[in-house]
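Field notebook, page 150. I keep forgetting to write these up properly, so this time I am using the form the group agreed on. The chain and the ligand, flavin mononucleotide, are recorded exactly as supplied. Prediction of the bound pose follows.
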Amino acid sequence: MKESNIKEAFDFFKPENCVFVSSVDKNNNPSWMVAAWNMKCSLKPPLFAVTLSKKWNTHKLIQKSKEFVISVPNKELEEALLFFGSTNWNEINKFQETKIETEKSKFIKTPLIKKATINFECELFKEVDIWKGIIFIWKILTLVFFNEVM
Ligand SMILES: Cc1cc2nc3c(=O)[nH]c(=O)nc-3n(C[C@H](O)[C@H](O)[C@H](O)COP(=O)(O)O)c2cc1C
């Protein structure tokens, strides 16, 4: 028998399915991050949850805007995934730096990622404070495919 720690135990869940998480500031400028701590919650109503650290800028944008886009990455977006997952908006303006192609959303201000496998437009359903982070639960308003995936 071997005693372990929580970090080592959680590593057994790897590889994780990462998603892009984005929202907008008061001038409707978008910013993106990457979240591996995500889960489907319900089909009716359609709900999806993401745990975000309070340290990240995206968390602050979401708390103000109450809206959010989840985009599912693919091989074409590998570079963007690394960039958005390893840079912070307060150090670098991701909106200006990135060449990522976006498309207007139907119901919210946050844009969709054009090359993503699928984009979910979401509005805030519930938030649960877990000390250093927040579990945001989202209601999916609509979903948009830009590519043929099936
Ligand atoms: C593969 C990967 C998975 C990540 N998953 C999460 C996550 O689930 N929750 C979280 O708060 N941060 C996660 N991060 C960290 C943020 O994506 C990252 O720190 C980002 O730079 C925050 O940007 P922001 O300050 O502009 O919001 C992950 C990073 C990577 C590379």
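OBSERVATIONS:
- The first helix runs from residue 6 to 10.
- Residues 18, 31, 33-37, 51-53, 56-58, 85-89 surround flavin mononucleotide (CB under 6 Å).
FOLLOW-UP: compare against the apo run.
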